[in-house]
Task: structure prediction
Amino acid sequence: MRHPEEVVRVSNLTVRYPGNAAPALSNVDLTLETGECVIVSGPSGCGKSTLALCLTGFIPHAIDAAMTGSVRVGGLDPRQVGVYNLAEFVGLVQQDPEAQFCTMRVEDEVAFGPENLLCPADEIARRVDWALDAVSSSHLRMRRLAELSGGEKQRVALAAVLAMRPSVLILDEPTAHLDPRATGALVHLLGEMQSQLGLAIMVLEHRPERFFGIAHRVVQLSDGTVVFNGPPREALGRADGADALTPRARAGPRPGTETITGIEPGHGSCPHLGPPDHGSPDPGSLRSLPGPGLHAWSRPDPDWRPGGPEFRPGPDHNFARPPGHDLPPSALSDDLRSSSHSGSGPGAGRSARPFAKLACGSGKGCARDYTLDNPLLRVCDLTQRYPDRAVLQEVSLVVGRGEIVGIMGDNGSGKTTLLLSIMGVLRPASGRIILDGDDITNVPVSARARRIGMIFQNPNHQLFTDHVWREVVVGPLSQGVPEAVCRPAAEALLDRFDLVAFRDSHPLTLSYGQKRRVNLAAVMVSDPSVLLLDEPFVGQDAARAQDLARLLGELASAGKGILLVGHEPDLMSRCCDRLLFLDGGRVIVDAPVCEALADFERMGLHDYLPQAWA
Amino acid sequence: MTSGTASKGRKYYFSTRDLVLIAVVSAAGGVLSTYVGYLGNLLNKAFGVPFGAGQWMAGLHVFWFVLVRVAVGRTGAGTLAGVLKGTVEMFTGSTHGLPIVLVSTVEGLLVDLALLPFTRPPLAALCIAGGIAAASNVVVFQALYFSGVSWGYLALMILFAFGSGIVFGGYFADGVLGIVEGARILHLRFSGDPGRAEHTGHVGRARRSSKIRLAVTLLMTVALAGGAVYYYAEVFEPFWNGPTCTVEGKVANPYVYRPVDFEDEAVTVTAELKGQVTYRPPADYTGVPLARILERAHPDASAARVRVLASDGYEAEFDLSDIMEDRTVILIREAENLRLIATGYEGGYWVRMVTRVVVE
Amino acid sequence: MITCPKPGLNPLSKLVLLVSFCVLALRAESPGHAAVPCGAVLLAHAAIGLPPAILWRRLRGIAVFALVLFLSQLFLTGGGAPWGVRAASGVRMAMRFLNIILGSHLFVSTTSAEDLAYTLMRLGLSYRYGFTLLIAMRFVPYFRLQSNTVLQAQMVRGIGVDRPSIKGVWCMARYTLVPLVVTALGRVESLAISMEGRCFGLHPRRTFLRTVPFRPVDALIIAGAIAVVGAAAAIL
Result:
């Protein structure tokens, strides 16, 4: 067995960008050995990417930044040798594989590096074979990149870097665009590469717990400074809180409405979520939201922290399996798929609350056990087809007032299509959509926009105007509403979302979190009763996600129904009242969070389980 | 970023970042060209014309070249973007085929040429570059697919395109560059080559002085007004002007005859129609003498005949000298048509639905 | 993409053929002369197996535009030219347009941009510039998706043009282009880092794994095309 060899040594590294008073990295010390996997974690802006750019030589050669201290990569000083001379020693895989491909076919992309090194054709072919084999993707060789799934793209990006035969592999937020299943596969792959190829691997992640299974060490950065450097088990125990999520502690549904989920205090509950607070007054409007509700969201929950040991279910943490959940998966999965929690299915009896079946006319697939008598949004037997396939197949769901319903599923399972169909952007092949008792199936999207708000994954796609105020009111103005009419609501939203100071700023110049709040304000100005959010947590660190989750909690407390598409099991299980799982365009799970998680487990959807549950 | 000394490699005129920027923006421009065409059609609808008003959108095609040229800060960036955008359009199904590569390349080249003297192009330079480049598409398409189109019409289209280039290629591009800089999207510290550090300075002008904005607005207003005036004065044919016919052939001044232009010269004659099958007793007819209409066109000295043609293909031929001396052969308005009252001639010379008067 | 029955034909040969064809189409002065290349290119479409119905569906918009060209030539030509002359000119221009578009369509249907880029690079075009075409084409599906999302985002905000106006179109352009530009520029640095991180630009030349065969028949085709264009220039 070969002895580990130090391949990266960073000593007292400080990096400062021009015009920035605070250094991006401050006195950082770090080492990396062959065969070692180090996770560098920390919130967005903590200096993770800057560290990667220093190790690959882009800082200071391509990016203007003052750099002091010592950096050695394979014994070379990046400042002396430049990017090209390091390229065969250290490879960088960036966050979005889509953004780093420069050819159109897998083979060309993997061959790109060796071609630039003037390798002969047979050597290039050998490297391509080897690299694709290393990422278990030889079968993709002749495929076009545009046709690949997110996970496949990430593997090809890895292979493209591996073809340079580096000793050190740096991955910057490699799971940001992957669904949980693909994330699990990537972690497994990295573990194999590490053990079989002896690579030194550095993963930059703001949610490091995903990689704890393969990590030797965890380095935690905060404001450019290393605040922790040690084994994962010690990282788990740290109560630093940088990446910790606060619990869902929002107010309950508006008075006068039924409890909308089966999670009622005392049965089927997930104690870490906390019971809904039924004592909250009806705010009537966002402006009148009670202050304490907001504060409650920012209060850290001592009982729950992602990755923390106390998070694991045990006798003291009542992750109670509902009745029937101790049955083997094989015995239940088919039932779940077929019945989707009908009254006679395995989910029967989970809730002490009597079932309140909904009649949608067709009578097929519309009954849901844990719904209220008068739901805000009902989707009945919705089918959506693209020319070559059905994307949604008889999807039915309900969203109650004040309820946050999470939709999970693999990429391509139809989650976004479902939201677009509800919004009216896509016209369904069949099915009905009922909003607050009104059938809106044939209502044009412009009219629906007054009652349903939708937020897309990328905040930049929804910022159209020159300044924040205009951005907030442009929707109503486009629909002929005078500014004087929407002004009070817009003013209140700017105030509520801490955007008053940016009223005249260009929306695109704001931070990511601020842009998200502008997006929310812009759809909330029409006071929609339902909000649809498509993967709003993608690319956000825990703090940002927490901010957004807090806002969603406030909105739900104000009586809004929220349909939330997301990939992050921890976050979704914390944030939502109920979870749906889409598989191939069908709803195969629709249950309160704890029951849904139990279903996930029984159905083998382990990648979708929160760390605590797993 | 640069692949010059920064990466301890060779020095190149365009850095890798430059090339990527040019390629990516060109791809976006190529993809959005379909959308720009859609916007052009919307404008055609707004103006109520079948085509032509879409030239108001021509500036959106050159917007990308101005953007690239300023962001890269190197002459040649616009031309390269032109080649790429045109190629992308061709390969993605442009309705113009190979010529779109030519059109796009010329536009990019003109942006480069117009901005050649500037390290940090001022807004006025961007507007002029955008205007010239946008107008060039009219000229190139004219050279390829039109022949002998009236200069007036051509000038109108060029004016439309030029105005659009000022607005979208100059003013709009400048604003977008300001946004890009404000949002720090390009991380302009990626300058690399010290010799080129200055070029990004242009992008720093996120906020224009109100005077410049006012000037551009005024300029555009004048251009818009001028275009509109010309269009409605010279090209637009309102239905309320009544029927028309062209006066053409061997004349110095071919023109479109409109009764409304000759109101003061109308005469009333009494004529009797004696046809082989039709007879109309003497009646009074009021109209403009054909001689007067021909005088306005200035027939050539060599001209000998005049043919009066109807929309249904019927025609009558007269001796030019006879007509020029006869003030009783008149063109009258009959409902929405013109009719020739050939006083003293057989019924066969009385032509209904006249559309052309041709001197030969 | 339609599979060309002559897979060995090099993209460069096809490009030279296309350019030559367009030159001939531009020089054809009479409708008769224009009809010859038109017939040839229609036959070529048939030869690659494209059913006429599909060709018509793809190009019917082109036919309408050719008609517009004809009419504009007919009615907008100044100088008092006789109608017959105008009509002949209209037919000539419409045929010229049709020929060029049909030729381009045939080229695009049988040639991939990446093959063309690799061919040009292997024939001496600087690979740094050749890759700009690859990158641009590689981002086409991405930007289609992005522009679609931006337009959907406008719809869900109730932003749209009900009655076309200059102001409305200006707003639509702004609302669509600005997010797209920001998205496009946001990709630049990741890709530049990815490429330089894999030594793009290290050497003035590079090697290639992909081969695009250039056979004697390609040389013959290129020579023949140039000869035909030269002869046509001398005769017409």
About this structure: Residues 1-7, 188-209 of chain B have pLDDT under 50 and may be disordered. The first helix of chain B runs from residue 16 to 47. Chain B touches chain A at residues 1-2, 6-9, 17, 20, 179, 182-185, 187, 189-192, 206 (CB under 8 Å). The first strand of chain B starts at residue 245 and ends at 249.
